[in-house]
Design a protein that fits this description.
Largest sheet: 8 strands, mixed
Number of helices: 8
Number of domains: 1
């Protein structure tokens, strides 16, 4: 199966996942579309560029992406489809880490359990005080979350741990290559849950930050990205 290793594969995640062998990867670490931007159906159906492009009152142009316009129940059904494939592909005891925001957090934890993974908890990502708030009456939308679990039992780590339950990393525009991209230093911390040489799968690779983090820290990786523009960005970053 070396044709899949240490590459970004452009295509539909579900179709490609079905080609991967069972009990193959050590961890799935991914940031799927949240489908949570907007409170009404018409707002959810907006192009992600309109929902996420503005940053601190400045327009930062990046490509759009797929899958961010589902309502809650269709998003849950969609998640269960690919989480069930991840369950098959993960090795026994393998890790599952999935980003979510506060709106989709309850549904994300349901999806993990419906995919027959063992839900282990939630990790917070503190984006620092630069995070936005709609107005002065709000608490800041300062945290996003990582829903995590394992395929069966959670074996003791011998290479490190225990891992923090909260990570604090700001978003830097110089390190952001996707409309909803995560900081590279954050992803380098997350991939460290498995030893060097382990295989990490990201089926929603976006601009490739999980893959870059894996490469930077001596892990192997498999990335899948549906959008041609972002797959090309990921390829360029990995080549660099």
């Amino acid at each position: 199966m070396n044709q899949y290793l240490n590459k970004i594969i452009q295509g539909d995640s579900l179709e490609i996942l079905r080609q991967l062998p069972s009990n193959f990867v050590d961890a799935v670490i991914t940031d799927p579309p949240y489908s949570s931007g907007g409170m009404t159906l018409s707002q959810k159906n907006q192009d992600p560029i309109k929902k996420y492009e503005q940053t601190n009152n400045k327009i930062v142009h990046r490509a759009t992406f797929f899958g961010d316009n589902k309502d809650t129940r269709s998003w849950l059904h969609w998640c269960i489809l690919w989480i069930s494939e991840w369950h098959r592909i993960l090795k026994p005891g393998g890790y599952f880490l999935m980003f979510s925001d506060w709106r989709q957090l309850p549904t994300a934890t349901d999806a993990l359990q419906m995919g027959e993974l063992a839900w282990r908890g939630i990790v917070a990502w503190d984006k620092t005080e630069g995070s936005r708030a709609p107005h002065k009456g709000y608490f800041r939308h300062q945290c996003e979350y990582i829903v995590w679990g394992t395929k069966g039992g959670c074996p003791k780590a011998v290479h490190g741990g225990p891992w923090p339950g909260c990570y604090r990393f700001p978003i830097k525009q110089s390190d952001k290559f996707h409309l909803t991209g995560k900081p590279t230093p954050l992803m380098e911390k997350l991939v460290s849950i498995v030893p060097e040489g382990s295989i990490i799968l990201d089926p929603f690779a976006g601009s490739g930050t999980t893959l870059v983090a894996a490469k930077n820290t001596g892990r192997q990786f498999i990335g899948i990205e549906k959008g041609k523009e972002y797959a090309a960005v990921a390829e360029t970053r990995l080549s660099a």
